[in-house]
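task queued by scheduler; priority normal; single chain, no ligands, no partner chains; default sampling; output format set to structure tokens
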Amino acid sequence: MKAGESVVVRYLLTEPGLYELGAQGWADDDLARLREWIARPNGLIVITGPAGAGRTRTLYGALRELAARGNLKIITAENPVEHQLEGVLQ
């Protein structure tokens, strides 16, 4: 292995609507179930999948919907923060 520095470049899309749950191709019944789950006052939702499967878009879409309610204090622990969300402490 060669010595020296390496660099990794990640290209993150920030298009409007990219982080909306309804724009991610979920089946209607699955989307309704997810929205029902995130409306609950407590619990844990685990989202898994391979690279490019939409984990980040799903997480940020759910956080945006919760933040839009305006009556919640939402705090995330992320490293790195991939997308700034209004109304969310990141």
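post-processing summary
- The helical segments are 28-38, 55-68.
- The chain has two helices and two strands.
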